[in-house]
Write a structure and sequence with these properties.
The chain is built from six helices and no strands. The chain has 159 residues and is mostly helical. α4 crosses α5.
């Protein structure tokens, strides 16, 4: 409870100081507004990380995992990572941040592996359907993909 009170007092103090220092800071008369502590109403360009930059970092992480590390070790990974930092697309990361990257990387690898395993099962299903099911789907084939193909025909139920 004491932490919450200290946090609230600090929040109010920061808002009071911001009103004194910045001329355009809103004076709303109370402290319970989401705009009070935010900068969304100011015309300040906040630095952000471009999606492309993140892709470069993710690609580097994947490269390091596949080529240099057999088992993930956040401290070793941070040493490998720092050798590739250029300040343009790849920025320094703490071991904790690299651990988070690793969690995302593992999840994505599991999804990719599942998709690869499913490809052979879809091919088996297509060959089975080609032998057993004498129907044609919307695209004129008798494959699983054809069952979900889009056509230009008007739906008979739309009238």
């Amino acid at each position: 409870m004491g932490d919450a009170q200290i946090s609230e007092r600090r929040h109010r103090h920061n808002l009071d100081m911001a009103q004194q220092v910045y001329q355009d800071f809103p004076k709303v008369g109370h402290y319970d507004t989401p705009e009070a502590g935010g900068t969304e109403h100011w015309e300040i360009a906040l630095p952000g990380m471009d999606v492309f930059m993140r892709r470069v970092e993710y690609r580097l992480f994947s490269q390091l995992m596949l080529n240099d590390l057999q088992k993930f070790d956040e401290n070793r990974m941070s040493h490998l990572w720092i050798a590739h930092v250029n300040g343009l697309g790849i920025f320094p990361k703490l071991p904790v941040q690299l651990k988070k990257y690793h969690q995302h990387w593992e999840r994505n690898r599991r999804i990719q592996d599942a998709m690869e395993r499913a490809k052979s099962e879809i091919e088996l299903m297509n060959s089975y359907l080609a032998k057993k099911v004498p129907i044609e789907f919307k695209d004129g084939s008798n494959t699983v993909e054809g069952a979900f193909a889009e056509t230009d025909e008007k739906n008979v139920y739309e009238s």
